[in-house]
């Protein structure tokens, strides 16, 4: 059965929702699913903007068959060659031997690498400022290198103001009927997953996102809706999501808030982390969340680390090192270029406590612009009542730093 949504008079969402995939990119859990968005424009020429992942291709074809009827597909625009969007391309090429393909130089390179038979088709290699006219609609192409692949581009329909933004402005969570940002409560239900999507997939490439935002700035006035490759289409409140992207891509925290991440085998470090959370709340800081690094997928920790201004890392010492899941979190923060955060450290050890120094060394030497608070809580096996002053000092120091910054 076809399942399409009308975006404008002659533009349709023809994508699909996926609730079967457990791990996006075989690494990030997506308990609420994901959508692969593809868009069909019915102008004098029919134009498909990107395709879908392999397992969603049947749905894509039911959708475009329904809308095209006897018409052929004339044009395929490939903004992004990652297989979650281009896997169905080979079938599109086979089904429509006359379809003309638009993409970037690197897009065509990747088509060859992935083995798609694009050479049998008319192709148009586009770059910044190139345009194409499909009848009533004219589109302009803008390359978006390393957002988050090298070949990525975005396409602006200058006639109607639809911006096909590739993975930019995308989100996890299946659409399940709803398509537009005003059909969902984005701030309540989607923001955390949109942030987790951005930070884990694109987070490393903040400077590239910033240069795309700057490059696209002169066109922004023309943008009436943003049509990303995952998640809702933005047709109102575009400033809201742009503001989020500005924060995330410049590594600015979204909120004065604390995340406490603890690594604890037997619960003693955990208990200190909880006591610290309570003391922060006593001081009026209630945007505090506590995470067990061992049972929280690191993609959630990354999303939250991009949101908050302050992190508390509380780790046991493990075979003279940092507890492996905590080290994994640190490595992931580094890999995704997270920077410009304030960190308080809590360490635990029963015979040779090392985790505090090692975490400090990692933050200093391997990450950028990380401020480490002087007050460190050091625990010998378990946090004693006699250490309450130290806990209070740590909470005071975090609170003071939050007030200052
Ligand atoms: C496998 C293993 C290795 C450990 N290695 C060290 C170590 O090298 N140095 C140290 O001071 N404590 C070491 N510990 C003790 C822990 O760091 C910690 O003090 C203890 O687990 C209590 O904290 P918890 O209740 O939060 O787990 C080790 C514990 C385990 C189970
Ligand atoms: Fe992608
Ligand atoms: Fe994608």
Walkthrough of the structure:
The protein is 34% helix and 25% strand. The protein is of the alpha/beta class and 405 residues long. Helix 5 (186-202) packs across helix 9, helix 8 (268-282) packs across helix 12 and helix 9 crosses helix 10. It is elongated, with a radius of gyration of 24 Å. 44% of the residues are buried. Flavin mononucleotide binds next to helix 8, strand 19 and strand 21.
Properties at a glance:
12 helices, binds flavin mononucleotide, 25% strand, six-stranded mixed sheet, elongated, alpha/beta
Task: Indicate the topology.
Layout: E1 5-8, E2 11-13, E3 16-18, E4 23-24, E5 28-29, E6 34-36, E7 39-42, E8 46-49, H1 57-68, E9 75-77, H2 83-86, H3 89-95, E10 100-103, H4 105-114, E11 123-125, E12 131-133, E13 138-143, E14 153-157, E15 162-164, H5 186-202, H6 206-216, E16 225-227, H7 238-249, E17 255-263, H8 268-282, E18 288-292, H9 298-307, E19 308-318, E20 321-322, H10 324-335, E21 342-349, H11 355-366, E22 371-380, H12 388-404
Parallel strand pairs: 8-9, 9-10, 10-11, 15-16, 17-18, 17-19, 19-21, 21-22
Antiparallel strand pairs: 1-2, 2-7, 3-6, 4-5, 7-8, 12-13, 13-14, 14-15, 19-20
Helix pairs in contact: 5-9, 6-7, 8-12, 9-10
The structure holds flavin mononucleotide (FMN) and fe (ii) ion (FE2) (2 copies).
Question: How would you summarize what this structure contains?
Answer:
By secondary structure, the protein is of the alpha/beta class. The protein contains twelve helices and 22 strands. It has helices at 57-68, 83-86, 89-95, 105-114, 186-202, 206-216, 238-249, 268-282, 298-307, 324-335, 355-366, 388-404; strands at residues 5-8, 11-13, 16-18, 23-24, 28-29, 34-36, 39-42, 46-49, 75-77, 100-103, 123-125, 131-133, 138-143, 153-157, 162-164, 225-227, 255-263, 288-292, 308-318, 321-322, 342-349, 371-380.
């Amino acid at each position: 059965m076809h399942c399409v949504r009308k975006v404008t008079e002659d533009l349709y969402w023809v994508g699909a929702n996926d609730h079967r995939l457990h791990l996006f990119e075989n690494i990030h859990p997506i308990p609420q699913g994901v959508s692969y968005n593809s868009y069909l424009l019915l102008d004098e020429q029919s134009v498909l903007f990107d395709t879908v992942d392999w397992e969603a291709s049947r749905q894509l074809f039911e959708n475009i068959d329904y809308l095209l009827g006897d018409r052929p597909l004339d044009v395929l625009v490939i903004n992004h060659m990652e297989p979650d969007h281009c896997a169905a391309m080979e079938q599109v090429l086979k089904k429509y031997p006359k379809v003309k393909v638009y993409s970037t130089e690197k897009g065509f390179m990747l088509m060859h690498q992935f083995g798609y038979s694009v050479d049998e088709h008319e192709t148009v290699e586009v770059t910044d400022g190139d345009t194409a006219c499909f009848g009533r609609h004219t589109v302009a192409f803008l390359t978006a290198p390393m957002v988050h692949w090298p070949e990525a581009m975005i396409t602006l329909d200058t006639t109607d103001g639809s911006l096909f933004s590739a993975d930019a402005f995308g989100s996890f969570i299946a659409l399940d009927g709803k398509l537009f940002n005003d059909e969902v409560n984005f701030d309540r239900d989607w923001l955390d997953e949109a942030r987790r999507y951005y930070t884990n997939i694109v987070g490393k490439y903040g400077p590239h996102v910033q240069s795309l935002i700057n490059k696209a700035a002169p066109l922004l006035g023309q943008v009436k809706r943003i049509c990303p490759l995952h998640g809702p289409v933005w047709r109102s409140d575009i400033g809201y999501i742009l503001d989020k992207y500005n924060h995330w891509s410049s590594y600015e925290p979204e909120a004065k808030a604390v995340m406490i991440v603890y690594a604890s085998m037997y619960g003693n470090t955990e208990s200190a982390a909880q006591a610290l959370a309570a003391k922060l709340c006593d001081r009026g800081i209630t945007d505090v969340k506590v995470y067990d690094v061992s049972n929280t997928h690191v993609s959630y920790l990354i999303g939250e680390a991009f949101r908050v201004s302050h992190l508390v890392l509380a780790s046991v010492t493990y075979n003279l090192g940092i507890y492996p899941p905590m080290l994994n979190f640190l490595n992931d923060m580094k890999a995704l270029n997270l920077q410009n955060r304030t960190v308080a450290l809590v360490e635990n050890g029963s015979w040779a406590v090392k985790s505090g120094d090692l975490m400090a060394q990692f933050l200093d030497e391997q990450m950028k612009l990380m401020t480490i608070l002087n007050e460190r809580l050091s625990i010998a096996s378990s946090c004693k009542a006699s250490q309450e002053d130290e806990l209070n000092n740590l909470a005071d120091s975090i609170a003071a730093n939050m007030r200052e910054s």
